[in-house]
Design brief:
Blueprint: H1 3-15, H2 18-45, H3 48-76, H4 78-101, H5 106-118, H6 123-137, H7 142-173, H8 176-196, H9 241-270, H10 276-294, H11 304-319, H12 328-356, H13 362-391, H14 393-413
Helix pairs in contact: 1-7, 2-3, 2-4, 2-7, 2-8, 3-4, 3-5, 3-13, 4-5, 4-8, 6-7, 6-13, 7-8, 7-10, 7-12, 9-10, 9-12, 9-13, 9-14, 10-12, 11-12, 11-14, 12-13, 13-14
Length: 431
């Protein structure tokens, strides 16, 4: 057994084998609802403009509601907050389906979509927070924490590949409403299972919510090893400035996603192969997921700030070829290679945030990063889509390259992220 496999096994052992299953199925609706709502409203209303407005409202709700839900989880624990959110969201998604099928007007549809977006239970960010809390309670070393974040990043990437694929399949063999109905069911069942899982108490406001025994008993907090390691500070402490730069970098990553999606859609349409757009984007996601899992193999001596800068350089170098792509084969090759830089950037920012933010604001900060991606992607889709329509696919891909350049600028100019790599903490003996 290799060291990486052993470390991954320790990650899975933190919460047990059921936790990643229910957390994956619980976050799958997030990837299904955006695309599913677009297809459903476009089919029932016959208007792409209406579908775009509803999809935008959904994204806006998620962008605004994610950090708020994370803050509530920090204050009151995950169990109650996630349970309420997943049932609220299941009802909101169901209402959206019924309203669309009833051919309700644009404004009511947009308001329902706004509520559905705001109620997204943020299972991905909260699963990260939960695994980090479990690892810290077990006195795990930083390598295990970084592997946990890589594993969670891979689950996210797989969900964002599988979710749209399920929606497309449902739309082909039945109706887009079927996919959204499945999303509502997953929210209610698997979201509840994630909320009620015994590990939910590990990420409470003080390490436990009082809802039962923690799988790992609390341990005395060690003194911070560097000026930026502030995990153990609780309450509404101020965030370091570097955290805001990371949120901006994550929003730019979302902008890169949106620009790539617009460019891919425009180019496949120009090549008279529009059906290939989803497959091209899925191929990029598969490569990103593989790269995220492989990130656990990076030597510990390569610190997170160095990884951030390296990922930013890779985003620039690997996105530039998109400007010159003219055929479907070249497009597949370019986006698959580019996908190798996506997850490392995302996972590194989650890791840096985990090191910098106070423990009492970790769930909020993780949710903020995810919301930043959603918000950046929604804005970029609107802007780059118009550019692609007016000037061709290369204009949208130019937006992607510009976003990558700005990411590198943030990575190079942000200070006090991690002045020197902290030594690995000794891991506790396996119980």
């Amino acid at each position: 057994m290799t060291a990486a496999t052993a470390t991954l096994g320790r990650v899975l052992a933190l919460g047990g084998p059921l936790l990643p299953v229910v957390s994956f199925l619980g976050r799958l609706p997030t990837a299904m609802c955006q695309f599913g709502s677009l297809l459903l409203v476009a089919e029932t209303s016959g208007s792409l403009t209406t579908a775009g407005l509803v999809g935008g409202a959904l994204a806006a709700g998620q962008t605004a509601g994610g950090p708020l839900l994370g803050r509530l989880a920090d204050r009151h624990g995950q169990r109650t907050v996630v349970l309420a959110a997943c049932w609220f969201d299941a009802l909101a998604v169901t209402a959206l389906v019924l309203a669309a099928l009833a051919r309700t007007g644009t404004l009511p549809l947009a308001l329902i979509a706004l509520l559905a977006g705001a109620g997204v239970p943020q299972i991905g960010p909260l699963a990260r927070t939960r695994l980090v809390a479990l690892a810290r309670r077990a006195r795990a070393d930083d390598r295990l924490v970084h592997t946990a974040l890589s594993f969670e990043g891979t689950l996210d990437e797989v969900s964002f590949v599988l979710g749209p694929a399920l929606v497309g399949l449902s739309a082909t063999v039945a109706h887009p409403a079927v996919a959204l109905a499945l999303a509502a069911l997953l929210l209610a069942v698997c979201g509840s299972a994630f909320a009620l899982h015994p590990t939910a108490v590990a990420a409470g406001p003080t390490g436990g919510s009082g809802a039962g025994p923690s799988p790992n008993p609390p341990v005395p907090a060690a003194a911070p090893e560097d000026p930026c390691d502030r995990r153990r500070v609780t309450g509404r402490a101020r965030l370091p400035r570097a955290v805001h730069a990371m949120r901006a970098s994550m929003a730019l990553q979302g902008a890169l996603f949106g620009a790539c999606q617009s460019g891919i859609t425009a180019l496949t349409a120009d090549l008279h192969r529009p059906a290939q757009a989803g497959l091209v984007y899925a191929a990029m996601g598969v490569m990103s997921a593989a790269a995220g899992l492989a990130l656990a193999l990076v030597p510990a001596r390569i610190g997170l700030p160095t990884r951030w800068r390296a990922a930013a350089v890779a985003l620039i170098v690997l996105s530039v070829p998109l400007l010159f792509v003219r055929s479907l084969g070249a497009l597949y090759l370019a986006v698959v290679v580019l996908g190798a830089a996506f997850a490392p950037h995302l996972i590194t920012l989650f890791g840096l945030t985990e090191r910098l933010v106070p423990a009492g604001r970790l769930a909020e900060s993780m949710a903020f990063l995810t919301s930043a991606v959603v918000g950046g992607q929604a804005l970029s889709l609107a802007a780059s889509g118009r550019l692609a329509e007016a000037y061709g696919p290369s204009a949208a891909f130019a937006v992607a390259v510009g976003a990558a350049v700005l990411i590198l600028g943030l990575a190079l100019t942000t200070r006090r992220t991690d002045p020197s790599p902290a030594p690995l903490r000794p891991a506790a003996a396996t119980p």
